[in-house]
Design a protein that fits this description.
This protein is mainly alpha-helical. The chain has twelve helices and no strands. Helix 10 crosses helix 12. It is elongated. The N and C termini lie far apart (87 Å). InterPro entries: RNA_pol_sigma-70_dom, RNA_pol_sigma-B/F/G, RNA_pol_sigma70, RNA_pol_sigma70_r2, RNA_pol_sigma70_r3, RNA_pol_sigma70_r4, RNA_pol_sigma_r2, RNA_pol_sigma_r3/r4-like.
Length: 263
């Protein structure tokens, strides 16, 4: 009974494939503007959907929802149906399979990485993941770096590089709790410290101040270090407030030029 059932399933699948192939051939034989072509196109896409789903399922359990993978495979199938040329002498399945698989690989390469990494590392990561799954089944244990390198015919350094690059595949939200007190990951990151900028400015100001004459340097020091007003500086030095204003402006222009030159 089991043999008969398997035979029946196989015959049904073969018949379904033949029917799908006939639809593709019939659609391809019609010119682009033929009124029957859109309906045949829809029927052909529906007939080949099992192939698209089967290919999508091969990429399941890699962190992407199965429904999303089916959708991506559907996009690849539609592209294959629309671009297929029967006069090329290639069966539709031989054209559709690499088209759908290519769409799935592009999805993993372009949509599922939290941090952009070189395409070579993205493809290497996918190859390592597939090799790890295959070797785990054949070896009965987790494969080593050497096992994966030998299987993929690459160096161990390349395997390590691919594993390091895989860390960019997923990211952690800054809102992730890291303590029972409610502290989030973002709270543990350092912020901008204005003290460093102030220290750099003080270091740069030394040579810049030395370019001023004695009176200019005294006015700048009283104004910005002593926090005196222009009138208070004028009273202390014995000149008019207007004169202090002009000297201060001239000194600041000199300082600005010195600091820009240093930068």
């Amino acid at each position: 009974m089991t043999v008969l059932a398997d035979t029946a399933v196989h015959d049904e699948a073969a018949t379904s494939t033949d029917r799908a192939s006939e639809l593709i051939s019939a659609m391809a034989a019609l010119p682009a503007g033929h009124p029957s072509r859109p309906a045949l196109r829809d029927r052909a896409i529906e007939a080949w959907l099992p192939l698209a789903r089967h290919l999508a399922n091969r990429y399941a359990n890699r962190g992407e929802p199965r429904d999303d993978l089916h959708q991506v495979a559907m996009v690849g199938l539609i592209k294959a149906v629309d671009r297929f040329e029967a006069d090329r002498g290639v069966d539709f399945s031989g054209y559709a399979i690499p088209t759908i698989v290519g769409e799935l690989k592009r999805h993993f390469r372009d949509r599922t990485w939290s941090v952009r990494v070189p395409r070579r590392l993205q493809e290497l990561r996918l190859a390592i993941t597939a090799a790890n799954s295959t070797l785990s089944n054949t070896l009965g244990r987790s494969p080593t770096v050497a096992d994966i390198a030998a299987y993929l015919d690459i160096s161990e350094d390349e395997v390590v590089e691919g594993l390091e690059g895989a860390r960019a595949y997923n990211s952690t939200s800054l809102s992730t709790p890291v303590a029972e007190t409610g502290t989030e990951l973002g709270d543990t990151l350092g912020g901008e410290d204005a003290g460093y900028e102030a220290a750099e400015l003080r270091v740069a100001l030394g040579p810049a101040l030395s370019s001023l004459d004695e009176r200019e340097r005294k006015i700048v020091t009283l104004r910005f270090y002593g926090n005196l007003t222009q009138q208070q500086i004028a009273d202390r030095i014995g000149i008019s407030q207007m004169h202090v204003s002009r000297l201060l402006a001239r000194a600041l222009v000199k300082l600005r030029g010195q600091l820009e030159a240093i930068a």
